[in-house]
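I wish you would study the pair of lines that follows with an eye to the fold:

===
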Amino acid sequence: MAENLHRGLAVDPDDPLDAQQIVAEYARVLDRDLQQGRFPVAVDSLPFSKPIIKSAIRTSVLVLSSEGQMTDDLRDFLHTAYVSLADYVTADLVQLLSEYNRAAEDLAADPRLAKEKTGGSAWQTISESSQLAGEIARAMAAEAEELQAEFSQLMSVET
């Protein structure tokens, strides 16, 4: 129940009105992050937990579909919102990926010959964290695929 508290008030993602509020607040955060190109983003920046947001989106799909109000634009928005949850990860993973990306940019911008770059801090960061960064990226991609499949299944049931 603690994760269902928001600003001191209990919210129920299975209630259509609460679900609408949850999705609207998440949409504001997602829009901000999309505008700023800030992916991946720390999961604690979300207004609710990922399971609460997922449940609220599912409730919204059910209500909109049952009332005949599901438009192509709403479907596209809800699909994007649902799958984008994969881009919200723990703060330590965001930091690691940011450091890795920064090092890769520094390495690419370094005008020296490749053999001269291997002694620098950017090269060291890349070599020490590339496997972990790859594993994180694969995990995020797998979660996005899972969310895609869940949303597709939800839409196939509703149409």
User: Anything to note?
Assistant: The chain has a mean pLDDT of 90.
